[in-house]
Design brief:
The chain is an alpha/beta fold. About 30% of the residues lie in helices and about 20% in strands. The chain has one domain: 3-Layer(aba) Sandwich (Rossmann fold), CATH 3.40.50. The chain has helices at about 45-55, 75-85, 105-115, 120-135, 150-160, 180-195, 210, 230-235, 240-250, and strands at about 5-10, 20-25, 35-40, 65, 70, 85-90, 170, 200-205, 215-220, 225-230, 300, 305-310, 320. Helix 3 (about 105-115) packs across helix 4 (about 120-135). It is globular, with a radius of gyration of 21 Å. The structure holds iron/sulfur cluster and magnesium ion. Magnesium ion binds near residues 43, 47 and 48.
């Protein structure tokens, strides 16, 4: 609810003045048991920071994160560690996220050891179970991460994330570093695991093409804010925000007859240090009006439940979600 994460940075080496990076700037959403929520946007829009705020790897500057009714932001470090058993992460880079000096067995058992779960024997048993669950085998336990391909390393990361029987797994660009053919295998594995263990996923990606195979609902982020949120059907088939439309126009369609005119966005995402006034998207928006430069649109729920932050939506039935 209204989560903000602002980082102070030094303006220059000489002066003491600081500036603020508004990485996440007032984000609110629900996450329902068993669903996959996609969080999509270009790099630098705050997705990874949001992911780390959810499981309190980073504490929010403002706002609250509730899990089973508990406000995580109010918990002590020790209490947060306990909650983190239930909210695990799979990171983007399967090459960097595994300690090269540890065997695969040590890496997968590590969460059990850290949290003091079970005896040495039961931890071993769980290890072999996990290896099988992610499509590896007992023989892999004694080997080191460098002996594995990118896809296999991501399987090792997933096994680690599953070790403590989590409720939620936050996947931060889990397949972005992998070849397209391997991406599909890892996505299918994640889907199978979700069915088997009733997992809830937050699936973060810059790629709407990857998200389309995974997500029940999607939040589109731009410059630290959610600009549109809706079901798979709403976002892919009836996008309302000009930014979502532009992102989708870059996604190849299955049939060439479906291919729509591609909207090329000029320029990069503006810096979160000095975000432009008004609508954060106005400098790149093909539909911008004069008022967009001054007044920031709020995220408003439409009659069909879709949430959109854009002045073009203002004549529809309104219920403000956040300011
Ligand atoms: Fe574009 Fe204006 Fe809508 Fe922002 S508020 S997305 S600039 S039309
Ligand atoms: Mg990121």
């Amino acid at each position: 609810e209204q989560v903000k994460k602002h980082f102070p940075i030094k303006k220059s080496l000489l002066k003491r003045e600081t500036q603020t990076v508004k990485a996440v700037d007032g984000v609110s959403f629900d996450l329902f048991k068993g669903e996959t929520l996609g969080v999509v946007g270009e790099s630098g829009c705050g997705k990874s920071t949001l992911a780390r705020v959810i499981n309190q790897l980073i504490r929010p500057t403002e706002g609250t994160v509730h899990f089973h009714g508990k406000n995580l932001a109010g918990l002590s470090a020790a209490e947060v560690r306990k909650v983190r058993k239930h909210i695990q992460m799979v990171f983007q880079n399967p090459y960097a996220s595994l300690d090269p000096r540890k065997t695969v067995g040590q890496l997968i058992m590590e969460p059990l050891v850290i949290h003091g779960v079970g005896t040495r024997d039961s931890q071993k048993k769980r290890l072999y179970e996990l290896l099988e669950t992610v499509g590896l085998n007992e023989g892999h336990a004694k080997r080191y991460p460098h002996e594995f391909s990118g896809g296999q390393r991501q399987r090792i990361n997933i096994a680690r994330a599953l070790a403590l029987h989590p409720d939620i797994i936050i996947c931060d660009e889990p397949v972005s570093a992998l070849d397209v053919s391997v991406q599909a295998q890892v996505i299918n594995l994640l889907k199978d695991l979700q069915n088997e263990f009733q997992l809830t996923y937050v699936f973060i990606s810059h790629d709407l093409n990857v998200v389309r195979y995974m997500c029940d609902r999607i939040a589109v982020m731009y410059l630290g804010k959610i600009v549109e949120m809706g079901t798979y059907e709403q976002i892919y088939h009836h996008p309302k925000h000009p930014y979502t439309k532009a992102l989708l126009s870059a996604v190849p369609k299955e049939s060439p007859f479906e291919q729509k005119q591609r909207t090329i966005l000029s320029g990069d995402v503006p810096s979160p240090v000095n975000p432009p006034p008004g609508c954060p998207f106005h400098k790149r928006c093909p539909e911008a009006m004069p008022s967009c430069q001054e007044v920031a649109p709020t995220l408003i729920k439409q009659t069909n439940g879709q949430q959109v932050a854009c002045h073009l939506m203002n004549d529809t039935e309104e219920e403000a979600i956040c300011h």
